[in-house]
Design goal:
The protein has about 425 residues and is mostly helical. Helix content is about 60%, strand content about 0%.
């Protein structure tokens, strides 16, 4: 708890001190599209990114999370793309405007590319924080940072528990600390889903280790409604169910239904295990899921298992490592390092902790094959074997000190890029 509190204070102070001390030369040329999006006036007109309060904690996707939380998926200040989808109306969440209302504009809001639970958590936290007298956007920003940081605390506690059984208390503490200093871990203190997602996902895995499958499934469903990668939690849930042998009860003679109800009980456990999958399927067949697919594919260029696109995109990214654009080379050096480290950590953990390893492997693989060559150093944060692997290596003092220096320096640079609305993944 003390380490987390110190981290939270340092991150808040760092993101005030750095902009007061230096500025960056624009634009950012890390990717093909970033020069046009990182000029001096690139944030003009983006209502949710121009509120002064905690402004250094919002950029890029923060705009959409705040818009959904303060307004709705149909907030008029958010850009739109494509044609309007036909909808039967009604809201999946209580703060979403029904699609057949008169406020709907032509096209699909880009907000639909983002899952609802993080904005919902922001809205819930905003209720008591509204007593501070801040305007709605400032209140939501504060709520978003608090949700992210509290999610990070939950993830640290879960990682400590998961690592302690294998590496002892020192190893558990090291794994939790490495989460805080990973190069992309500055996202855990921003208005981004990473903090909440790792908190829910890692806590679900820790509860599963304790035999609390029902509560683990609840958190898994919430993680799925935070980020699509949460659906992969169905795998450790399934492994737990198979390991305990409850699935064998499904083969009992139907006549036993009248005596002990065991098949019904087993069927109920099966539904619990499939909770994340069912939640994801319900989302995808809803209006919001259909809109999600359209915006992801047409605007952000992402999709499930886009193998061809992935191969082309990452092949070009690899060539950038040896090109004349030093900004692209530096950016992709971090990306490829994260990819290799993520896959290596998950594969290395398959025998030690298959439940964590398969979940982590799916998170890394599904993120990697979603299309565009960007953001992988952020997505691997959702793979717990990464931090157990580093903690195992960190038993050697030389690696521990070296990793802390290297990781913290890179994180500081990436956090600075984010504060100045440059591309940081």
């Amino acid at each position: 708890m003390a380490i987390w509190l110190g981290w939270a204070v340092i991150m808040l102070a760092y993101q005030v001190w750095v902009p007061a001390r230096l500025s960056l030369q624009r634009p950012d040329r890390a990717l093909e599209w970033t020069p046009a999006e990182t000029t001096a006036g690139s944030q003009a007109g983006k209502t949710y990114l121009n509120e002064p309060f905690l402004n250094n904690h919002v950029s890029w996707d923060s705009e959409y999370y705040l818009a959904i939380a303060v307004g709705s998926y149909e907030d008029p200040d958010i850009r739109r793309v494509g044609e309007t989808l036909v909808s039967g109306g009604g809201g999946f969440w209580p703060f979403v405007i029904p699609q057949n209302s008169g406020s709907v504009q032509p096209g699909i809001s880009l907000s639909y590319a983002f899952f609802p639970f993080y904005p919902l958590a922001i809205r819930l936290f905003s209720l008591p924080l509204s007593l501070l007298g801040l305007n709605p956007i400032a209140t939501a920003t504060l709520a978003g940072v608090l949700v992210s940081m509290l999610g990070t605390l939950a993830a640290m506690l879960a990682l400590f528990e998961l690592a302690r059984t294998e590496l002892g208390e020192a190893g558990g503490l090291r794994a939790a600390f490495y989460l805080l200093i990973f190069p992309s871990s500055f996202f855990l203190a921003q208005v981004y889903t990473e903090g909440l997602f790792v908190g829910l996902a890692f806590s679900s895995l820790a509860l599963l280790r304790r035999g609390r499958r029902g509560w683990a499934a609840v958190l898994a469903v919430l993680a799925t409604f935070t980020r699509a990668a949460g659906v992969a939690l169905a795998v450790p849930l399934l492994l737990s169910w198979v390991r305990e042998g409850e699935w064998l009860e499904l083969d009992l003679d139907w006549r036993q239904l009248y005596f002990n109800g065991l098949p019904w009980k087993a069927a109920g456990h099966a539904l619990v295990v499939l909770g994340p999958v069912l939640a994801y399927m319900l989302w995808r067949i809803s209006y919001y899921g259909l809109a999600f697919s359209r915006v992801e594919e047409e605007y952000f260029g992402r999709g499930l298992l886009s193998l061809g696109y992935t191969f082309i995109a990452w092949s070009e990214a690899f060539r950038s490592l040896f090109g004349t654009n030093t900004q692209a080379a530096a950016y992709y050096a971090v990306e490829f390092s994260a990819i290799l480290l993520g896959f290596a950590a998950c594969i290395a953990g398959l025998r030690r902790h298959p439940d964590l390893a398969w979940f982590g492997l799916l998170v890394v693989f599904l993120s990697f094959t979603s299309g565009p060559a960007q953001g992988m150093h952020r997505y691997v944060l959702g793979a717990p074997p990464l931090f157990l692997f580093l903690s195992r290596l960190g038993q050697k003092p030389a690696f521990d000190r070296t990793w802390m220096i290297a990781s913290t320096l890179v994180m500081g640079i990436m956090a600075t890029m984010f504060m100045f609305d440059m591309w940081a993944g």
